[in-house]
Amino acid sequence: MATGHADPQRRARILAATLDHIAEEGVAGVSHRKIATRAGVPLGSMTYHFSGIDELLREAFTGFADHFVTVFEEHLGHATTAEEACEAVTDLVHTLSEGPRRDLVLTQELYTLAARRPEYRKLTQSWMRRSRQRLEEHFDPETARQLDALIEGLTLHRALDPAPHDRALTREAIRRITTPERQRVR
User: Fold this and answer.
1) Nearest CA to 173 among 161, 152, 80?
2) d(CA 178, CA 151)
3) pLDDT at residue 5, rounded to an integer
4) Shortest CA distance to 41 belongs to which of 71, 82, 11, 83?
5) CA distances from 13 to 33, 57, 67 (A)
6) Where do the HTH tetR-type domain residues begin and end (predicted)?
7) 6 vs 66, residue with greater confidence
8) pTM, to two decimals
9) Which domains are assigned to the chain?
């Protein structure tokens, strides 16, 4: 392993170690010493690369949010019709809910920080805005906002339910939001 400035991957290893640590122990357990040990870097590297824990957390969570926007882009980028976009959203819900438990935990840790601290709220708002922009390539803004919330809710429910719902229920929920006749008579 290279040392000092000759180690161009050090910063990236620190950020990855931060997310790994949060996924295992939560944000409350983050310290320079713990992250340096996990990343296999000298403790001094932490203050060389980051002004403090807040900068470290913001950058780690920004990278995490960027990853999720990329997942949205990968799923929605190939859709050319409304039907394909709905199927892409269905695939997205199932991919996210069946994905690594680590991602679910990191998402909830970020949401908890955002609920408490405005600087993290801005980060999550940016993430939501970027996700909705991907959805707005296929749906009107109101529908995109509803789908974004649906994606998060269904993903969480599927990930935590011991008997998660199937694709048919996901497809039906998406159809109800995206079909113009969705206002049903009561």
Assistant:
1) 152
2) 13
3) 56
4) 11
5) 14, 14, 16
6) 8-68
7) 66
8) 0.86
9) 1-50 (1.10.10.60), 58-181 (1.10.357.10)
Written as one string, the DSSP assignment of the chain is ---GGG-TTHHHHHHHHHHHHHHHH-GGG--HHHHHHHHT--THHHHHH-SSHHHHHHHHHHHHHHHHHHHHHHHHTT--SHHHHHHHHHHHHHHHHTS-HHHHHHHHHHHHHHHH-HHHHHHHHHHHHHHHHHHHTTS-HHHHHHHHHHHHHHHHHHHH-SS---HHHHHHHHHHHHSGGGS---
Nearest to 98 by CA among 8, 12, 161, 16: 161
The overall average pLDDT reported for the chain is: 92
54 CB neighbour count, 10 Å cutoff: 12
- Does 184 have pLDDT greater than 70? no
Q: Residue 131's closest CA among 81, 83, 74, 78?
A: 74
- 8 A C-beta contact, residue 58 and residue 123: yes
Look-up of token digits 């296999």: 40
User: Which two tokens mark 47?
Assistant: 């203050």
Two tokens at 178? 């995206």
* Residue 87: both structure tokens together: 């199927």
pLDDT for 6? 65
Confidence of residue 181 (pLDDT cuts 50, 70, 90): low
